[in-house]
Amino acid sequence: MPKILTEATSLDWLQAAAATVPADQSCVEVGVFQGGSLQRIAVGARKGSNPPVYGVDQWGSPGMYLDRPHLARAYGKENQRIAARSAPTAALVRATSREAAQRWDGPPIGLLHIDADHTYEAAMGDFRAWQPHLAPGAHVAFDDYWAGRFEGVIKAVDELVADGTLTDFERIGHHFAVTRLA
Q1: 27: which strand partners?
Q2: Which of 10, 32, 117, 132 could form a disulfide with 57 if both were Cys (CB 3.0 to 4.6 A apart)?
Q3: Model-level pTM?
Q4: What is the pLDDT of residue 131?
Q5: Is residue 3 part of a domain?
């Protein structure tokens, strides 16, 4: 069983959103860890039109977390094996978010869940890397929109909403922001 770090209300939202993604689009999660939320996205996708589901994570890639070695141990390769068991119908991609987005050749993305490094630069960089692949009106969710803890995620989401890139902002639970591509 994967360790799940996302609130139940957020997982419910992800599952329901994945069920609305058309078959000719896809669902992508950036920052998979052990696959708990990816599992719910995959379940939702199967309940809907069954679009492909992808999980992107570094999972102990060389050079990962050089400045924070304790994180390299906590987020290592074993978590990829757990994720593969947790979400067996999802395709797992071991790469940085930007590397995976640069190589993307899958269908347009109808649901993008960003839950990787929770700094402003990372959240904004992840969104900008995947933005060209988003379907019109795609759901975009950010985990850890959390005041006092992850101010960078809040700043990135608020800027994207303020400049009109993202619309329909809603907060789910205590720290989950959901939006749509304008």
Answers
A1: 53, 111
A2: 32
A3: 0.93
A4: 98
A5: no
